[in-house]
């Protein structure tokens, strides 16, 4: 595993020629309870925006799908980033359906809410406060990044990088589990404990010889502003295909059956 300077600076054979078409998602989703209330994750979208700007600066063609954050998008347009906005996971799903097929690399940094109200609110509805309280029935949102992975082009492989934000105690396990279950090329693992910090302590997991492995780490808590270029250099070194041939063993401690990679 490498520290602050990832892997090596040379490109592997098979890495698509630049400029690459990047699709980056950032920010939370807001799942409406009524016209004014929602369920959502705490997310500023700053990390995804920083990655988008770093990619545009080095000449990649970048489309940023940006959630409900207060960011002014004219500054993004000045750097060459094309921005499309979403509010709900359903909006983001629609945008991914539209944009995923034509990208070479998807970086899924959006903090998609895992649940949404089962009953969509009626237009103009605002729930009244009541002494009985309120019980909401929630349903899981579709796993958008896993759906993209399942819909990958078979020719000209598309790379997909997901994120994992978990307590440090189960971070490595969760990152490897998401890498396999969602069929991603890499997962960027961040400890929950650094969420409000201006520094990042990320580890990138990917496949090495068929096994989920920590490929690179920022080591000594990198400034978030420097994270975009760092991550892009790590991604440049990933092999073009997500999963190795043959079954992949689940991470140690998992009781589920081994997962087979998709047929190509
Ligand atoms: O399963 P979990 O939410 O921890 O996985 C995080 C990764 O999966 C992130 O890359 C996030 O953008 C993506 N995700 C998704 N659809 C969901 C939930 C998470 O694409 N419904």
Tags for this model:
14 strands, alpha/beta, Rossmann fold, 264 residues, binds cytidine-5'-monophosphate, eight-stranded mixed sheet, single chain
Describe the fold and architecture:
With 264 residues, the chain is an alpha/beta fold. The protein has helices at 46-57, 74-78, 89-99, 144-150, 171-181, 224-236; strands at 21-26, 30-32, 38-40, 61-66, 82-85, 105-108, 115-117, 138-140, 159-166, 186-191, 199-200, 203-208, 211-217, 222-223. It has one domain: Rossmann fold. The protein is 22% helix and 24% strand. The strands form 4 sheets. Strands 5-4-1-6-9-10-12-13 form an 8-stranded mixed sheet, with helices on both faces. Strand 2 (30-32) and strand 3 (38-40) form a beta hairpin. Bound molecules: cytidine-5'-monophosphate. Cytidine-5'-monophosphate (C5P) binds at residues 89, 108, 110, 112, 114, 141, 143-145, 162-164, 178.
Question: What characterizes the major β-sheet?
Answer: 8 strands, mixed
Structural class: alpha/beta
Strand order of the largest sheet: 5-4-1-6-9-10-12-13
* Radius of gyration using CA atoms only: 19 Å
Q: Would you tell me which CATH topology applies? A: Rossmann fold
Report the average pLDDT across residues.
87
Proportion in β-strands: 15-25%
Q: Which outline best applies?
A: globular
Q: Count the domains.
A: 1
Uncertain residue segments: 244-251, 253-264
CATH class: Alpha Beta
Secondary structure: helix percent: 10-25%
